[in-house]
């Protein structure tokens, strides 16, 4: 019995440490105007208030939220679809230049985004896409090497016999991919999608640089600017942070078991 | 008469396969070659130009590199970056391995504990940075209020040139330990249970088992976690942007932040590109070094 209490105690302590900033965020976001925004810890017994959320949304946060949701959905959809196609080609087809190309893809994982920032900005300027939705989304939505790598590893673990059988039955490449490979790849698809959603939802540097007009502002930029514009209205900032987290939290809770399992099967042995 | 036909068909089949492959690859080729690889080439070219906002770019050869080597701000930023990496990588790796050992047990409710530990990874770094700046606030922040309970007068974490960097790095470790735990957990679960039984029959202590069996078998996972963390911490930007803006003084002025300032505040694209080339070279060397080191160790294992 003693042996069991110890790991639980450590686990609970670890989890408390992992979530206490969110706990503080939650408490601060719902503080009333009567309570000084800076005082900590909060004063128990006072009723929660949504005033911070009202101020937040009055300053256009609802628009940022909608923008972020749409942009995240768009980029993620592109990333996953195009990564599936590329990964399938790398995993199952033989063609000249395959291995060299795959190494090129992998090597781009090493490029720090800040290094590509200036050329990308200038390219978007040339294309007339600065401060447009296309400029915001295009550079990241077409090719994501890490997703291609993870998917390729998974596709290769699927027995080729299954696909051969389908092909003998007369199914084409695309048909085989859709009706045989993809259903078997659910865990890795969920994982790649989740990773993409988290990255796109949280992305900051590129949106900060490429967009300037408020109607295209994303949540992360909104929160960062909120700090400066309102002279740190911490309650509102915390309300915004809370809203930023909730969708990702829901996503993760729903898909947690897939993610843990697919990490285990994706070539990390 | 019959022999050429199959060969022809095979050749046609191969040609069709190549065409199909490149059709499938087309969008990602545009993305990877156009938006990841081409920018690297462009940044190399730009680093040879003097180009300020609105001015015409002027080819200056290696002048930017001469400036770079004499620029103490750049070397300082590189040292600051290395310091950040030196705290974050071991911190995150060790903590995530310990967490993985902790959650690699069959206990009731374990999946909830695992999920809770991964949550910090999902936080929007900008929002997270603001929450933590507030926790670190010297007067009314949670950390110093907590220390106050024990009669400790906490320091001004983020406005101290000495403490600012470790504080920002602590946030990085806090954010990524749980995420990296997942990879170690996967690695641990791939180790056959029979090995544990065998070593406990031999009377090996859990600690000896860990160092002689578990750790060597985790080497591929270790390589993955180290490399992704090194690359990731070299790129740190978001939390520093909101927590310290490179300060106090230039104590948290990492190279990414310096590049951002040169390019998008001073609009000196040429010189910012030169610093980018330096950063890229450093990341490249760091990554390749790890690969070579681990490859050699692994090969040694196999042959010896």
UniProtKB/TrEMBL annotation, chain A:
Primary location class: membrane
Membrane-crossing residue ranges in chain numbering: 7-30, 64-90, 102-124, 136-155, 176-199, 234-255
GO cellular component: plasma membrane
Recorded topology in the membrane: Multi-pass membrane protein
Domain ABC transmembrane type-1 stretches: 65-255
Signal peptide span: none
GO biological process assignments: transmembrane transport
Subcellular location: Cell membrane
Keyword set, alphabetical order: Cell membrane, Membrane, Sugar transport, Transmembrane, Transmembrane helix, Transport
The keyword Transport is assigned to this record: yes
Record-linked Pfam families: BPD_transp_1
PANTHER family: ABC TRANSPORTER PERMEASE PROTEIN MG189-RELATED, ABC TRANSPORTER PERMEASE PROTEIN MG189-RELATED-RELATED
Family as reported in the entry's similarity comment: Belongs to the binding-protein-dependent transport system permease family.
Protein name: Multiple sugar transport system permease protein
Source organism phylogeny: Bacteria, Bacillati, Actinomycetota, Actinomycetes, Propionibacteriales
From TrEMBL, chain B:
GO cellular component: plasma membrane
Superkingdom of this protein's organism: Bacteria
This protein's UniProt keywords: Cell membrane, Membrane, Sugar transport, Transmembrane, Transmembrane helix, Transport
Spans through the membrane: 21-49, 82-103, 115-136, 156-174, 223-243, 269-294
Subcellular location(s) of the protein: Cell membrane
Domain ABC transmembrane type-1 residue range list: 78-290
Keyword Transferase: no
One BP annotation, GO: transmembrane transport
Membrane topology classification: Multi-pass membrane protein
Family indicated by similarity: Belongs to the binding-protein-dependent transport system permease family.
Name of the protein in question: Multiple sugar transport system permease protein/sn-glycerol 3-phosphate transport system permease protein
